[in-house]
Q: What sequence folds into this?
């Protein structure tokens, strides 16, 4: 994952002695071309403390927060996240979004902190490739209106939706609206959506995990694009 | 979620005073018809300790582990999980599987404990509805062979797969094979599979989260069934 970091934003690299001596460590140092003064060898104990995990990978990078991209790229659908609070869900959505070819993720400031350790870890390196745009308060909803004027069509994942997600055509003008884990999308967000869609559920399940729902929608768009 | 528990397996119910006095508490007690002696009122503090979470829901049920169903039901695809170790992933797969109409989940004993608090919570009540069959050691692989003799076709999610997941027809004779978060499926499991499939990935993503990969496959089967 450290190899994914844009070099200009790398502020320091910490390696355990074992990791630095191995093939993975040598490859990483060659690839990143870090100035020698910015590489620090630490003991396993120090690494465990620094990383905050029980089984650290032996390498830890200090990265400028400016490394996160904020300009949308490509002409694939975008995703709008309203208050996705669980860091694991947010990280998983970012990782799945890149795999599905999503151009950018817009999020309310009620979403989990993208720089929290759990988000960073669960994105598995996608954090520095996927454009992530965080919008304060009303700006999130104003951005929906701005994009609609340019022809973007907002499809909201909602339990009250009537059209199944796989009956809707998706293209580069599609924006998916995904809501909070416990409460779904707010009335305000739903009122702005061009369409509400439902992911059909068998059995007695009341809702899907937010990252799973987002994955099913994003991959349906990717599937249609490949046809 | 407590309302989902089969009454014959319910061994006790603990409620906070606030929860018991509210509409949710009264409905639950009416629905479950728990004998009076099995209901205990506790303080918020005791509930927090018992539930092990910071924001407990105000109700906690003591359930016999025998409440978990072990007989497959229905004629929809089944899922085989090899060493899915993260409790959140396992719980999310169980919840998504019910929503996608999966008949049963078979798992190695290297999978997370289905009775661990995090699995129980992330299944959101599906734990008592989805048939869950845990197989020790070789039994898991022997079961694959047994089911193949009866006509089941095993489709393995594998990064080395060539046929995209949405180019394969799925039906009630399909079994999905999903592997460990870090290492994917073992060589042994892959050798047994009838087919390896790949979920196409854009960008530089190396793999998908195990629960996301399982969700995409299970929902593709559900989508084909609805056509």
A:
């Amino acid at each position: 994952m450290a190899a994914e970091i844009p070099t200009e934003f790398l502020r320091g690299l910490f390696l355990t002695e074992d990791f630095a001596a191995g093939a993975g460590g040598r490859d990483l140092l060659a690839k990143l071309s870090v100035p020698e003064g910015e590489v620090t060898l630490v003991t396993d104990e120090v690494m465990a403390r620094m990383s905050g995990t029980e089984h650290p990978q032996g390498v830890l990078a200090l990265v400028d927060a400016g490394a996160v991209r904020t300009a949308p790229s490509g002409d694939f659908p975008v995703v709008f996240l309203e208050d996705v609070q669980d860091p694991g869900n947010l990280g998983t959505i970012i990782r799945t979004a890149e795999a599905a070819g999503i151009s950018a993720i817009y999020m309310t400031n009620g979403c989990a902190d993208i720089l929290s350790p759990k988000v960073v870890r669960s994105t598995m390196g996608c954090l520095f490739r996927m454009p992530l745009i965080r919008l304060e308060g009303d700006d999130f909803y104003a951005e929906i209106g701005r994009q609609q004027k340019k022809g973007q069509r907002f499809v909201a994942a909602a339990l009250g939706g009537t059209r199944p997600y796989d009956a809707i055509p998706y293209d580069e003008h599609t924006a998916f609206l995904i809501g909070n884990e416990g409460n779904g999308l707010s009335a305000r967000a739903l009122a702005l959506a061009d369409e509400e869609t439902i992911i059909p559920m068998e059995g007695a399940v009341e809702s899907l995990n937010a990252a799973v729902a987002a994955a099913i929608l994003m991959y349906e768009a990717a599937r249609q694009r490949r046809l």
Observations:
- The interface with chain B takes residues 4, 88, 92, 95-96, 98-101, 122, 124-126, 129-130, 164, 166, 199-209, 211-212, 215-216, 219-220, 222-223, 226 of chain A (CB under 8 Å).
